[in-house]
Structures are given as structure tokens and as C-alpha cells.
Design goal:
By secondary structure, this protein is of the alpha/beta class. It contains 13 helices and eleven strands. Helix 1 crosses helix 2 (about 30-45), helix 4 packs across helix 6 and helix 6 (about 130-145) packs across helix 9.
Length: about 300
């Protein structure tokens, strides 16, 4: 039995110091975040551990994109698994911009003005679908001349290379994934604007193909060749499930951190705590694991800061 200690915060308190105090504060989510930070550092120190990072697209519409970019740039993760919208937002913000907004905005008025609302972020039409269509088609034409069939990993790396001469390319997740040869997979590639543009391109290039089995094979190879595996998972859905699904075939993850806002009571994968995955063999019985409830746009930067 350890005593609960009060937090001591001043202008001189660093984020690292604060989270270290969280571990002794007995403070609900604060203590969980401190445990997650410890597991994250263990993953980083374990040279035998392949680190999977899964996340939803929505946070890439916010400044959290910069945190993800830095994780890839600084090689803190080994494998990315995400959704199609991540590519949408990463490319759209490379070529245009999103704006600060409000949850309380009048959505009818926004629609009349051609502005899409993503939470409290405003996304003008010309900064999303329109710019993606205008910029993507020339890239696809060039890539099509090189080869006709692609895995999502190969195609995403090709896009990362294609934008490497753009003015703000170092702000892009795709660029750094290609630059550092960190595989990035999208199990549901048509569920977004990027995928819709691929589909539109296919209308006039019927021999243009996506080979998702190549992605599955590569993920499987990574898992089976790894001595240990760990995962940082934001939310749930297809991204999280792809991580834990493949890792069950090696006996489960050795480390796991999940950040989620979903309740466990709804039975969803987003709400399922890491301990539930143990029953499926997707996380090992002896794994270091934690589920931290809260907004990833707040918690992810705090967690990552501990390993800088």
C-alpha cells in the first residue's frame, strides 16, 4: 500500500515532471497516463520490439498531425496502420490549409458557404476534395506509367516520394514514412477522398489495381519476424483491429497502450479495453498494457513528450 501524494505544480514544472507525479497521485486517468508513459518508454528501450502505431484520420485534421509526423520522422514507430482519411488530411494540408472552427457553428450556414466542419475544425471545399482531385490525378498518371498494380504501402510510399519536392513536404506524414522507409498500411483504402480519387482514376485506367493481399502478407511477415511487438493504438476500428488481429498469430502483443473516448459498455472495438484482447490471444497474458480514457489530441502529445 503506497500513500497517495498531492501534485505540486509551478511555472518550473515540466511535462515530464508532471507525469512522473501522476504515477503517485492516485488520480484516476492521470495515473493511467503515467502507466502508459512507462510502457511507452519500455517499448522504446526494447530494441527487440517492433512498435505498431494505429490511429484514426480525424486527428490528422488537427495539430496532432505534427505529433504523428514527428513520431515517424524520429523513427519512434516501426509500422503505421491507419484509415484513408489520414492521407486525405495529410495531403490536403500539405497543399492547402484547414481553419480553426467551433463545435457550436451553424452547420447550415457552413454548408451554404462551402465549408465542411470536422469537430471544431473548418475544412473549405477548395482545401479538401477540390485540391486533392487537382493534385492527385497528375501524380497517378505518372505512377501508372511505372506499374499497374500496387499495394497500399507501395502506393503511399510513392506518394511520399512524389511530394518530396513540394514546399512544405517535411510537414507530411507520408513524406517521412517514405523517407525513413516506415511501412504505412490502409486496410480500407477506398473509404475517403484519396480512395475515391483512385476509383475515379480507375474509370479510365481499368488495369490499375490495388493488391490488398500484398499488404496483408507484409504485415504478417513483420509480425512473424519480430522477437517482440508493441502497439500504441488511438481509438479503435479497422486500424486497431488490424494490429491486434495479426499479432494474435504470434501469441499476442508484448506491450499495448490504447487511448480512447469510447465506453466499454457499447461492445465496440474502440471501447474494448486492452485486457479484453488477452482473452482472444491478441495481447499476451504477461504483457504490459493499459487503456487510457480521454482525448488523444490532449493525451498523445503528453505521452510522447516523456520519451523525448
Amino acid at each position: 500500500m503506497k500513500k497517495v501524494k498531492d501534485l505540486s505544480v509551478s511555472q518550473k514544472t515540466s511535462i515530464k515532471d508532471l507525469i512522473k507525479q501522476f504515477s503517485q497521485a492516485g488520480g484516476f486517468t492521470a495515473k493511467k497516463l503515467a502507466e502508459g508513459a512507462d510502457i511507452w518508454q519500455d517499448m522504446q528501450k526494447d530494441k527487440n520490439c517492433k512498435v505498431f502505431f494505429s490511429f484514426p484520420a480525424c486527428i490528422c485534421a488537427t495539430g496532432t498531425r505534427g505529433v504523428i509526423k514527428d513520431l515517424v520522422k524520429n523513427k519512434k514507430v516501426d509500422v503505421l496502420i491507419t484509415t484513408c482519411g489520414t492521407v486525405d488530411h495529410d495531403l490536403a494540408r500539405l497543399w492547402k490549409y484547414y481553419c480553426e472552427g467551433k463545435f457550436e457553428a451553424d452547420d447550415r450556414e457552413l454548408h451554404k458557404k462551402g465549408i465542411n466542419r470536422l469537430g471544431n475544425v473548418f475544412v473549405p471545399n477548395e482545401c479538401y476534395g477540390e485540391v486533392l482531385e487537382n493534385k492527385m490525378m497528375p501524380i497517378l498518371e505518372k505512377l501508372y506509367k511505372k506499374q499497374k498494380e500496387w499495394s497500399t504501402r507501395d502506393l503511399l510510399w510513392a506518394f511520399g516520394e512524389a511530394i518530396s519536392k513540394d514546399k512544405n513536404h517535411e510537414e507530411s506524414i507520408l513524406y517521412w514514412a517514405w523517407k525513413n522507409k516506415i511501412p504505412i498500411f490502409i486496410p480500407g483504402p477506398t473509404d475517403g477522398s484519396w480512395g475515391s480519387q483512385l476509383w475515379m482514376f480507375w474509370q479510365t485506367h481499368r488495369d490499375f489495381k490495388l493488391n490488398l493481399f500484398e499488404d496483408e502478407q507484409e504485415i504478417s511477415t513483420i509480425v512473424f519476424e519480430a522477437k517482440k511487438t508493441g502497439a500504441l493504438m488511438l481509438g479503435g476500428g479497422i486500424s486497431k483491429h488490424h494490429v491486434i488481429w495479426h499479432n494474435q498469430y504470434r501469441g499476442g502483443l508484448d506491450y499495448a497502450i490504447q487511448i480512447t473516448t469510447a465506453p466499454e459498455s457499447d461492445g465496440s472495438l474502440s471501447g474494448a479495453r486492452t485486457k479484453e484482447a488477452i482473452s482472444w490471444g491478441k495481447i499476451t497474458e504477461k504483457a504490459k498494457h493499459i487503456t487510457v480514457e480521454g482525448d488523444a489530441t490532449v493525451l498523445l502529445p503528453l505521452l510522447v513528450n516523456c520519451s523525448i
